[in-house]
């Protein structure tokens, strides 16, 4: 999943909050947020389809959808603030929507991490096996060279 899209959404959310004083910047930020969410939604669909167990996939899908709804509300509030830049109620709503988007991003991240546990366990196991194989290769190399001390008169070739 393109993590950069996931991390950019709260950045745009924060920038929208800061742009309360410069509403003319909100259109560009909303457009960029929409593009990044689109990329995230595509990758989220693939992550949900491949997640094990299925509950994790459902959780990823649900949280990405909830994030999408939060982004929609944020973009709507940005548009409303552009129409009426002095409305303090709309400014507060925009800030609340930005907080909600940031929260939803953290929920998507936690769902992705939950789906990643099995993958991480496989990576750890593969690394441990690779280390054991490397140790065995090193031992074989030294034994073949005759640099290991034998406890009796047997050769390495007898045990290999």
From TrEMBL:
Signal peptide as annotated in the record = 1-19
Record's subcellular location: Cytoplasm
Q: Which GO terms describe its biological process?
A: actin cytoskeleton organization; cell-cell adhesion
**Cellular component terms, GO, for this chain's entry?**
cytoplasm; focal adhesion; plasma membrane
Q: Does the keyword Aminoacyl-tRNA synthetase apply?
A: no
PANTHER family referenced in this protein's UniProt entry, alphabetically: TALIN, TALIN-2
What protein name applies here?
A: TLN2 protein
What species is given as this protein's source?
Brachypodius melanocephalos (black-headed bulbul)
Q: What is the lineage of its organism?
A: Eukaryota, Metazoa, Chordata, Craniata, Vertebrata
Gene name per UniProt: Tln2_1
């Amino acid at each position: 999943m393109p993590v950069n899209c996931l991390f950019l959404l709260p950045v745009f959310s924060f920038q929208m909050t800061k742009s309360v004083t410069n509403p003319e910047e909100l259109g560009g930020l909303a457009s960029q947020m929409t593009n990044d969410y689109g990329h995230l939604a595509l990758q989220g669909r693939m992550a949900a389809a491949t997640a094990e167990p299925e509950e994790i996939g459902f959780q990823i899908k649900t949280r990405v959808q909830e994030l999408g709804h939060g982004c929609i509300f944020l973009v709507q509030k940005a548009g409303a603030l552009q129409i009426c830049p002095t409305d303090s109620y709309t400014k507060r709503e925009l800030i609340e929507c930005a907080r909600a988007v940031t929260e939803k991003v953290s929920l998507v991240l936690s769902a992705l991490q939950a789906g990643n546990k099995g993958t991480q366990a496989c990576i750890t196991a593969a690394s441990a096996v690779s280390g054991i194989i490397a140790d065995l290769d090193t031992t074989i190399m030294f034994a073949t060279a005759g640099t290991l001390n034998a406890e009796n008169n047997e050769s390495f070739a007898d045990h290999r």
